[in-house]
Amino acid sequence: MAGTLIDVPKTAKRGEIIRLRALVAHPMETGYRREITGAVIPRLIIHTFTCDYDGEEIFRAELFPAMAANPMIAFTTIATKSGPVTFRWIDDAGAIITEKVMLNVTE
Question: What pTM, to 2 d.p., does this model score?
């Protein structure tokens, strides 16, 4: 399965704006290239990325063939309470790549 790199602060103060970053190793084949024989290489891209914070979706991105291989996505959110942060990528083959980390929020 694909490898991931996740960057989430280990701790944050309640109300603090935090940056989350996620990178996944994936070839992101566009479906536009051809093999040496002329056959089209089938499209295989990650088409959906979501992030849930303590069970609530806080970020969603729909990706398209122009996206680079090994896409890195960065966004911010507000730390409200301690809980799991779940990152999920879904590709054209139906593969689901999931990573979960804990965010500890202090007063």
Answer: 0.90
Rounded Cα gap, residues 2 and 70, in angstroms: 9
- pLDDT at residue 1 greater than cutoff 70: no
Residue 49 · residue 63 · CB < 8 Å: yes
Report pLDDT digits (tens) over 28-63: 898 889 999 999 999 999 999 999 999 999 999 999
**Strand locations in the chain, DSSP E?**
4-7, 11-13, 17-24, 46-53, 56-62, 72-78, 83-91, 96-106
d(CA 106, CA 15): 10
**Domains with residue ranges and CATH for the chain:** 4-106 (2.60.40.10)
What are the Cα distances from residue 20, in Å, to 44, 66, 71, 80?
Answer: 25, 23, 14, 14
8-18 residue pLDDT tens? 999 999 999 99
